[in-house]
Amino acid sequence: MIQTVAVNLKRFRAEQGLTQPELAKKSGVSISSVKTLETCKATNPSAKTLGALARALNRTIGDLLTEPLRLERIRFRAKASFAQYRRINVVNLCARWLDDYCYLEDVLGVASFFKPLPPFNVANDDLGEYANEVRKALEIQPDAPIYDVADVLRKRSVKLWYCPQRPADAVYGLAIQESPQATGVVVFNDGKISTERVIFTTVHEFAHLLLHEDSFKSEITQESKTEERQADAFASYFLMPKKLFLQQWEASVGGRFVERVLRVKRFFRVSYLTVLHRLVEEKLVDPNVYVKFPIAYRETTGESLRNHREPNALSPFDVPTDRFQRLACEAALAGKITVDRAAEMLSVPTLQAYELINQAGGIV
After folding, report:
1. Over the range 263-275, which residues count as b (16 or more CB within 10 Å of their CB) and which as e?
2. Where are the beta strands (DSSP E) in the chain?
3. Pair (24, 84) in one structural domain
C-alpha cells in the first residue's frame, strides 16, 4: 500500500504541477511527512493525513490507494523529456478509457476486434504502394479523398479517442495493441492544434499499428526517427495517393502557386506543409519552398503564417467523431450505466452528459 501511495502522490503532484513544499503548504501536511510518504518510509499514514493530501490534489483517499493501470503493448513516445510520473498518468488515463470502451461494447453486445491488414515488408515494400493496398482493403475509392478517418479506423475495429487533454506540447498521439479487442489510437486534441494536424496524427498512429508491431513495448520511450518517418510517409500517401495528388495538382494549373497549394490541401484535408512536402518529394518544387511559401502567402493575402497558423484551415467541427461517446450515450439510454458514470467516462460535467445523451436519443 505504501508504495502505491508514494507513486500516486508523485504522479498526482506532477499532474498538478506542484513541488513537495507547495503540496505541503496547500494540504497543511508537513514537508517531512510528504517526503516520507513519497520515499516509502512511512509505515502507517493516518486517514487524516491522506485525506488532507487527497483534497489538496483534487482526489480522494481511494485514488491514493488505487494502483495506476498499466499497458504492456503501448507505443508511447515523446520528443521532449517526459517525467516518469507524468508518463504513468497518461498511460493510466488511456488504459482506463480502453477498459471503459471494451466494457461498453460488452454490455451493449457490440464487441469489436482488430482486423489485421496485409503485412508490410520494411525491406522490400514501397510505402506508397502499401498505402494504396490498405486503401483498397478498406474499400476506399482510388480517386476519392478520405472525409472521415474515424470511419476508416472503425472498419478495422481500431478504437479511437480524441482525448481533450494534452500531456505536453511535444505529444500528439499514441497507439495501443493490448489485445484484438483492446487495440486503439489516442489523439490528444485540446483544441489548440489544427484539425488538419488531428487528422494526420490519427493516420500516423494507425500506421504504427500496421508497420511497427514489434515496437509496442511499454519500456521503450525514445522515438525511432526511421519509424516516425515511415509513419509520416504512410499517412501522406494514405491521405494523398500519388496518382490522385498529381491529378489535383495538374487540375489547379493556371492559379497562383499559393492558391494551388490551398486548393489541394482543402481537397485532401491535410496541412499546407504536408502538401509542400509532397511537392518537394515529387521534385515539382525546390526545397526552398518552405521558406518561400510564407513570404508568398503574405504577399498574396496580407496575412502571416506565424505561430503555426494553418491557412484556409478546416473548422474544429470538421474533426471526426469517435465511437466511444456514442456508445456511452447508448449505454446510458439503455439503462446499462448511470448518467453519472457516462459523465465520468466522457470526462464531462453531469449536466453536459445529460445533454449529450438527450441529443443521442433524438431530443434537442
Report:
1. bbbbbbbbbbbbb
2. 74-75, 159-163, 173-177, 183-188
3. no
pTM, two decimal places: 0.89
Residue at which a domain ends, from 26, 45, 65:
65
Residue with cell 509513419: 231
Maximum C-alpha span of the chain: 77
- Residue 175 has, within 13 A of its CA and on its CB side, a CA count of 22
Sheet holding 173-177: strands in order across? 74-75, 173-177, 183-188, 159-163
Q: What one-letter code names the amino acid at 304? A: S
**CA 252 – CA 246 distance, rounded (Å):** 10
Are 5 and 37 within 8 A, CB to CB? Answer: yes
The domain total for the chain is 3
CB 96 within 8 A of CB 103: no
Q: Is residue 277 part of a domain?
A: no
Lowest mean pLDDT: which of 111-125, 187-201, 208-222, 318-332?
111-125
Tell me the angle at which helices 225-239 and 272-281 cross, rounded to the nearest 10 degrees: 100
Q: Is the domain of 19 the same as that of 46?
A: yes
